[in-house]
Design goal:
- The protein has 15 helices and 15 strands.
- It has a 7-stranded parallel β-sheet with strand order 3-2-1-4-5-6-7, sandwiched between helices.
- β1, α1 and β2 form a beta-alpha-beta unit.
- The longest helix is centred in the last third of the chain and has 20 residues.
- About 50% of the residues are buried.
């Protein structure tokens, strides 16, 4: 980009506070963008220590919005949107990520008369279970997202399926305003780790076939269905769950009850209730026989790329952008899923089909190895972060030039 063009990146998550795929996306995108543009990251949370990379400005929600009521979570997000809109003064362009900052990007566009680019990692209307988490705040999250996206100068969809969902959900958005730029993966950092030193600490039996799940405890990730499938897994496979931060106490209790029932029935389950440091996660991914992504909604699924980069075979749901990452019969196996109102029409059938595909890979180590090798090759060839950042900068240039005219 030309000299003097400054980009303000708006995000809820930024290191060290990352809990989901959108945060991973922003971390790696910012790491590449800082070499291509004059970048400032505006994020949630406590002040970040100065270090190499972009300048980082952090924001806390208004103290007057303290409390435990679910709707307050959305109001706190909106308070940060207001602060971010004021804080980006001097930027040439603002780039928001997720509903948490889409409204902030829109307000910045209005008050500073600069273009707004928004990256869509998911869509609130397609996640109806969030009403359970946010209460009345769900209406506010939907409002924030709709307002920001419908007025954005350009929208980045992280998959072709995500683009289709955006245009179907928000029909006021012109198709030419939505560009597909996939999520990426650092295949230097994420590569097979032959070491096993972390496995014992995590409670994983190193020489036992391992079925691994990594994800947040949200209904979107489909963990309840994987736990139902686990009753049908062939022994001696162990199920390892790297899952924490339930979106509601009720969901946390439901998962805990299913895990205890599996253990009582003699099925080995290791539940790691923490966000692992990256070296430990990479080792866990490397030594899994099969990585399972049972999501019922997934615009792309960075975690599948992470597992593929570690040469691990995948079993994943054929939803959203997952088929753009996991090639059925080449890097793993896809599970068909019919949904109604955001839930599987036949949950028992869904669980059986997950188990059948996992068991097929568990029974054939050569097949697992072949899928793993093909998965890493696909991750390296198609999903590098530098190329993705360069495409984003081209979009910035187009939007800024159009705004100037």
């Amino acid at each position: 980009m030309g000299s003097g063009r400054r980009v303000a990146l708006l995000t809820r998550e930024y290191p060290p506070n990352i809990y989901g795929g959108a945060g991973v996306h922003v971390e790696y995108l910012a790491r590449e963008l800082v070499h291509l543009v004059e970048l400032t990251v505006h994020c949630w949370g406590e002040p970040r220590p100065k270090r190499a990379g972009p300048r980082v400005i952090a924001y806390e929600p208004w103290e007057s919005l303290g409390g435990a009521a679910p709707l307050l979570a959305a109001l706190r997000a909106m308070s940060i949107d207001l602060e971010m809109a004021a804080g980006v003064e001097g930027a040439s362009l603002v780039h928001s990520h997720t509903w948490y900052t889409n409204l902030g990007g829109h307000l910045a566009k209005l008050v500073h008369e600069i273009p707004h680019v928004a990256t869509v990692h998911s869509l609130e209307p397609l996640r109806p279970w969030k009403a359970e988490q946010l209460g009345g705040g769900y209406a506010l999250s939907c409002f924030s997202e709709r307002t920001g996206l419908e007025a954005a100068d350009a929208i980045v969809a992280v998959s072709s399926a995500m683009r289709d969902d955006i245009l179907a959900t928000y029909t006021a958005i012109p198709p030419e305003r939505v560009t597909v730029i996939h999520n990426g993966i650092d295949t230097v950092e994420f590569q097979p780790d032959p070491g096993r030193g972390f496995l014992g600490r995590l409670g994983v039996v190193a020489n036992r076939p391992t079925v691994l799940f990594v994800g947040r405890l949200t209904r979107q990730k489909g963990l309840t269905h994987l736990l139902d499938a686990a009753r049908l897994l062939d022994p001696p496979a162990q199920l390892v769950l790297c899952a924490s931060a339930p979106e509601t106490p009720e969901l946390g209790a439901e998962i805990a009850a299913k895990v205890e029932a599996l253990r009582a029935a003699g099925h080995p389950v290791v539940w790691i209730e923490e966000m692992l440091p990256r070296p430990e996660l990479i080792q866990l991914l490397t030594h899994a026989t099969v990585f399972v992504c049972p999501s019922i909604y997934e615009p792309l699924g960075i975690v599948n790329l992470e597992a593929m980069a570690c040469e691990t075979a995948i079993v994943a749901t054929r939803v959203g952008g997952i088929p753009e990452v996991v090639e059925d019969g080449v890097t793993g196996l896809l599970v068909p899923l019919e949904l109604r109102d955001g839930e599987p029409v036949e949950p028992a059938l869904f669980a059986r089909e997950i188990a059948e595909r996992v068991n097929r890979i568990l029974a054939d180590p050569a097949l697992a190895a072949r899928y793993g090798k093909a998965g890493r090759a696909r991750a390296v060839e198609r999903f590098g972060w530098r190329a993705i950042a360069e495409r984003v900068v081209v979009l910035y240039e187009q939007v800024i030039d159009a705004h100037a005219h």
